[in-house]
Amino acid sequence: MDNIIAVAAAILYVLAIATIVPGLVHQVGIRTKTVSASAFLALAFHAWLLGDLIIEGSGQNLSILNVASLISFIISLVLSLAMLKTRLWFLLPVVYCFAAINLSAAAFLPSTFITHLEQDPKLLIHISLALFSYSTLTIGALYALQLAWLDHKLKSKKALSINPNLPPLLMVERQLFKIILIGNLLLTGTLLTGFIFVEDMFAQGKAHKGVLSFIAWIVYSILLWGHYQKGWRGRKVTWFAVAGATLLTLAYFGSRFVREIILN
Description:
Blueprint: H1 2-26, H2 32-54, E1 55-56, E2 59-61, H3 64-83, H4 92-108, E3 114-115, H5 121-155, H6 169-197, H7 207-230, H8 235-262
Antiparallel strand pairs: 1-2, 2-3
Helix pairs in contact: 1-2, 1-4, 2-3, 2-4, 3-4, 3-5, 5-6, 5-8, 6-7, 7-8
């Protein structure tokens, strides 16, 4: 049954992508209602699948593939809701593609990492903050890449500024720093709850998570300071945002990828 749900969700994500891409390539109107219907149906099936995969009688299965699928769901949901107000057509195909891949991997390549969060509410708070901070800052990295792409195209002779499906450059920049600010606040909460609630945070095999997350926090803090105090813009912002997201990816998935996927 889970495989059928995964296939249905993946097909709906692909349908949404197929509706968006021609509008970006040919600079024609995008059928918003079709995209919205496909995307939110895909999200509904995705949520159903996550419930089946994660919630087990013996606890919660937070395997690396399930967590990756959950993060993809959060990012897709946030950007799909944002799509109702702003033009995010450039980002949505990328996000929906990763969502389809991650949910398919979780459904067809099952793995197990059982936790018991119902017995430890403090750990649940820490993990929830970590998931939302990573998702938010990943969205920030996507916005930074979009900003760099728009800036490059606007400086070229292709005149993509008239494409009705692309958002204004300044709007993307404003939204980018709001997202990074929110994400860094969530990351601050993640680090604080980790220090307070996780007793073996710096035990062997776990220390890299705290260290890399803290370095990422420094990177984002410097980026915010540089923008608001020094007026940083352009490529420097993109490099900082992508570097921070890369550090968090290594922190959250590095050792578990090796342990669960390569060595398992």
